[in-house]
Specification:
The chain is mainly alpha-helical and 265 residues long. Helix content is 64%, strand content 6%. It has a 4-stranded mixed β-sheet. Strand 3 and strand 4 form a beta hairpin. Helix 6 packs antiparallel against helix 7. The longest helix has 22 residues. The termini are far apart. The C terminus is likely disordered.
Length: 265
C-alpha cells in the first residue's frame, strides 16, 4: 500500500492519522503541491485531479480523504475478522467535517505576496506540462482554468466571509457535541476525529487559535487531549515542534526562489 501525500496537506493529515490509528503499514511518498510535483506527468496520469492524498493498494486507487478513510475502516475489519456495530453518528460527523472546504479559508489567510508568487509558479508548471505531454493537454488546461478561477474567488470578500462562517458553524457544532462526549462521535476515538483534528492543526498553522479555538473551551480541551495520541504526533505533531515547523516551508520557499532565479538568468 502506498500513500502519496504532503505533511502540510490537510486531507493528507486526515488519512495519515487514520492509518496510524489502524496500525496499517504503508509506503510514504511526499508530493509537494507548492513545487508542482502533483502536476508531474506520471502523477497526473494516475490522478488527473492532482489533489492530495492518493492512496494505492495494488490496482485500487482512491483520491478523496473520506473515501480513503472509509476504505481503511473496511480493510481493518477484514484483517481483524471482527464485525463492529455500525455507528451512524461517526459517519454523519465524517460527512459534516468533509463538507467544509478549507481551500479558500487557507488562501485568504495566506499573505498576498506569497500567494501570488506560488500561483504564478503553478500556472507556469501547468503550461510547461501541457507541452511536455500533449495527450494530457486538455486535462492540464482544466487545471489551468481552475487556477485562474481560484485567483478570482480569493479576491471576493463574500466568498471569504462564507468560508469563515461555515467553519465557525462547524466549530460551534463540535463544541456543543464535546460538552456531551469525550470525542467527536462518542467516548472512543473514531475516524470522525481523524477527519476533524487536522482542521484544528490548520487553524494553528495560520496562527488563528485565539479566534477559533481558544474561545471554545471544550474544543481547546479536546485539542490538548488528542495531541498526546501517537497518531497525532506522527502525522501532525512532529511538523509543528520548534524548527521542524518551518523546515518544510523553508525548503519549499528555497526551491521556488531558485527556480525563479534560474528563469531570470
Amino acid at each position: 500500500m502506498q500513500l502519496y501525500h504532503h505533511p502540510y496537506s490537510l486531507d493528507s493529515q486526515k488519512v495519515r492519522m487514520a492509518l496510524e490509528e489502524k496500525g496499517i503499514d504503508y509506503t510514504s511518498y511526499h508530493v509537494n503541491p507548492l513545487t508542482g510535483k502533483n502536476m508531474s506527468v506520471d502523477f497526473f496520469r494516475m490522478n488527473p485531479s492532482a489533489k492530495l492524498p492518493v492512496f494505492q493498494n495494488g490496482a485500487h486507487v482512491i483520491y478523496r480523504a473520506i473515501d480513503i478513510i472509509q476504505y481503511l475502516d473496511r480493510l481493518a475489519v477484514h484483517l481483524s475478522g471482527e464485525i463492529p456495530p455500525v455507528n451512524t453518528e461517526v459517519h454523519q460527523w465524517m460527512q459534516k467535517v468533509d463538507a467544509w472546504n478549507p481551500k479558500m479559508f487557507t488562501l485568504t489567510h495566506t499573505p498576498v505576496k506569497y500567494r501570488a508568487f506560488v500561483s504564478k509558479f503553478i500556472r507556469r508548471v501547468l503550461i510547461a506540462r501541457m507541452a511536455e505531454a500533449p495527450d494530457l493537454a486538455s486535462m492540464y488546461h482544466v487545471k489551468l482554468r481552475e487556477a485562474y478561477e481560484t485567483e478570482d474567488k480569493v479576491k471576493d470578500p463574500e466568498i471569504m466571509k462564507q468560508s469563515e462562517e461555515e467553519l465557525s458553524k462547524l466549530l460551534d457544532d463540535v463544541e456543543a457535541q464535546l460538552s456531551k462526549t469525550k470525542y467527536l462521535a462518542g467516548d472512543e476515538f473514531s475516524p470522525a476525529d481523524s477527519m476533524f483534528i487536522p482542521i484544528l492543526a490548520r487553524i494553528t498553522l495560520l496562527d488563528l487559535d485565539e479566534e477559533y479555538i481558544s474561545c471554545r473551551p471544550k474544543i481547546l480541551e479536546y485539542y490538548n487531549l488528542v495531541k498526546h495520541r501517537p497518531s497525532y504526533k506522527i502525522a501532525i505533531g512532529k511538523y509543528f515542534n520548534g524548527w521542524k515547523k518551518y523546515r518544510t516551508l523553508f525548503k519549499t520557499s528555497f526551491f521556488l526562489c531558485v527556480r525563479t532565479l534560474l528563469r531570470r538568468y
